[in-house]
């Protein structure tokens, strides 16, 4: 109880500190509202977005895109990673390709994404997919390669064949490391949500920011930024809970 | 030779070499022995004499460089459920409970219904005295308990041969004695053949019908000692010490051969 309380006070102190510094910068620098909106204006923007329901409309759209992009990336990357991790010779060929594609920011693909997938939900989903795919793929492959040899020998001895070998032994044995990739991918996927929604979207939290910028409503831009930041934090905590839950089902390792 | 006349387990002039830094290193040389049904055989030697390699060859985890391993009349090419290996670090899956670990061994057996599988797993968990821990994970068990789970999993499969790689090396003396007794009891019930790799002379004399003493560099059979004592054996009995001494001396001789100047 005390720990929860101290965690809460820490957050409160941090929050107050940011607002105080923010307000001080405006007082001392004497910046016009058009350049840096004061906390109060941003607060009002947040309240009005929540009150008229705009926030929830955008939130729903963004969460749908994030969930589709992220989950499809996770499924594709884990399945592919489990297979490639078991085929070291194939991985040696695929690895250089992945290493070349991985450092390219997903938005760089924007022209192709729009050409191939059109506008609407798809560009954002594809962007998040690309962003989340590589961390999960790489962590899965290295997790499978790192599996304790004894597990594989026991499985061989028990004559456990595919596909049982894959989902009864290899997936659970690799999961603690895969979870690492899942965690990183939530972060990168969420970061690229905004970028994805800048491409041909007419809704979503990213669009909210772009639209407000075009209208020069910087207080709404900052409100959008705060929404995205806080939601990113919540998503990160949720995936942490998911990891713990799976860990508990599988004997709380690590 | 016709298949019917073959012994239960036979190693025929088995050699094994590994490549190490481009050089071929001979680990096992000219290993030939036979094993009858119902026997417990220990392979005893210093670390690095290739005894674990030998066990891997018998289990089919590795192939001999030359020579053949015959199991029940046919050449061993891959691991099988008929010969289950017990690993030194127990080989339990940490994400499965005791019950699920034992059941896993039975899952590839399509002749068992899920109910029959559960029942048989539970029977063997009871047999090793872990009924109350059946829903615990391996991380919640002591080393001795983990080894008992591994033994239950192996026995539940009803293999014809169990291969043990220093199974009790990581346990304290009391746990080791206790588990050795348990193993003998279970072996007597199930009549399973056992090949046991160990560096513990006491363990070898206590458990086996025959002790194969290995020499190192390259690993080869130095001597085979038949233990003519009825089981269960008394560790403090004179006959026990006689065999202990026979084996002990065979290791000491190796030392004397190299250092003749110490003759008294």
Automatic annotation (TrEMBL), chain A:
The keyword Membrane applies. The chain crosses the membrane at residues 12-29, 69-88, 100-119, 125-144, 216-235. Residues 59-239 form the ABC transmembrane type-1 domain. It comes from the Bacteria. It is a multi-pass membrane protein. CDD domains: TM_PBP2. It is found in: Cell membrane. Keywords: Cell membrane, Membrane, Transmembrane, Transmembrane helix, Transport. Pfam families: BPD_transp_1. PANTHER family: ABC TRANSPORTER PERMEASE PROTEIN MJ0413-RELATED, ALKANE SULFONATE ABC TRANSPORTER-RELATED, MEMBRANE SUBUNIT. Belongs to the binding-protein-dependent transport system permease family. This is ABC transporter permease.
From TrEMBL, chain B:
InterPro entries: AAA+_ATPase, ABC_transporter-like_ATP-bd, ABC_transporter-like_CS, ABC_transporter_ATP-bind, P-loop_NTPase. Keywords: ATP-binding, Cell membrane, Membrane, Nucleotide-binding, Transport. It is a peripheral membrane protein. GO terms for molecular function: ATP binding. The keyword Nucleotidyltransferase does not apply. It holds the Pfam family ABC_tran. SMART domains: AAA. PROSITE patterns: ABC_TRANSPORTER_1 (PS00211), ABC_TRANSPORTER_2 (PS50893). It comes from the Bacteria. This is ABC transporter ATP-binding protein.
């Amino acid at each position: 109880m005390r720990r929860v309380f101290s965690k809460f006070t820490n957050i409160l102190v941090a929050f107050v500190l940011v607002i105080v510094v923010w307000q001080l910068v405006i007082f001392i620098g004497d910046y016009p509202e058009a350049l840096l909106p004061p906390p109060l204006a941003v607060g009002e923007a947040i309240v009005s977005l929540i009150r008229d329901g705009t926030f929830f409309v955008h939130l729903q759209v963004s969460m749908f895109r994030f969930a589709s992009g992220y989950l499809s990336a996770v499924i594709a990357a884990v399945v592919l990673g489990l297979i490639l991790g078991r085929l070291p010779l194939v991985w040696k060929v695929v690895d250089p390709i992945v290493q070349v594609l991985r450092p390219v920011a997903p938005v760089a693909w924007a022209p192709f994404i729009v050409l191939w997938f059109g506008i609407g939900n798809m560009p954002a989903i594809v962007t998040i997919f690309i962003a989340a795919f590589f961390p999960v793929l790489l962590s899965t492959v290295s997790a499978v390669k790192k599996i304790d040899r004894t597990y594989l020998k026991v499985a061989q001895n028990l004559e456990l064949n595919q596909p049982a070998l894959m989902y009864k032994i290899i997936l659970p044995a690799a999961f603690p490391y895969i979870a690492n990739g899942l965690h990183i991918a939530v972060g990168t996927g969420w970061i690229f949500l905004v970028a994805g929604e800048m491409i041909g979207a007419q809704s979503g939290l990213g669009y909210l920011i772009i639209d407000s910028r075009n209208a020069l409503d910087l207080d709404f831009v900052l409100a959008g930024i705060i929404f995205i930041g806080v939601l990113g934090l919540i998503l990160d905590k949720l995936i942490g809970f998911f990891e713990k839950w799976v860990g508990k089902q599988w004997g709380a390792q690590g | 030779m016709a298949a019917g006349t073959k012994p239960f387990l036979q190693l025929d002039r088995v050699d094994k070499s590994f490549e190490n830094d481009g050089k071929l290193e001979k680990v096992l040389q000219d290993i030939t022995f036979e094993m009858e049904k119902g026997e417990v055989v220990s392979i005893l030697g210093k670390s690095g004499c290739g005894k674990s390699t030998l066990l891997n060859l018998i289990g089919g985890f590795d192939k001999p460089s030359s020579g053949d391993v015959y199991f029940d009349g046919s050449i061993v090419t891959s691991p099988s459920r008929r010969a289950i290996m017990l690993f030194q670090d127990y080989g339990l899956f940490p994400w499965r409970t005791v019950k699920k670990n034992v059941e896993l061994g039975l899952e590839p057996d399509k002749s068992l219904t899920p109910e029959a599988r559960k029942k048989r797993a539970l029977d063997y968990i009871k047999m090793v005295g872990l009924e109350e821990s059946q829903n615990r994970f391996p991380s919640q068990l002591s080393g001795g308990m983990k080894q008992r789970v591994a033994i239950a999993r192996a026995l539940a499969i009803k293999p014809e041969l169990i291969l043990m790689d220093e199974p009790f090396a990581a346990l304290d003396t009391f746990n080791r004695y206790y588990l050795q007794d348990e193993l003998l009891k279970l072996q007597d019930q199930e009549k399973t053949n056992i090949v046991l790799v160990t560096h513990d002379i006491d363990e070898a004399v206590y458990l086996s019908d025959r002790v194969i003493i290995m020499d190192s560099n390259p690993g080869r059979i130095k001597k085979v000692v038949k233990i003519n004592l009825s089981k269960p054996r008394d560790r403090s009995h004179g006959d026990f010490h006689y065999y202990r001494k026979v084996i002990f001396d065979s290791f000491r001789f190796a030392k004397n051969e190299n250092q003749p100047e110490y003759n008294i």
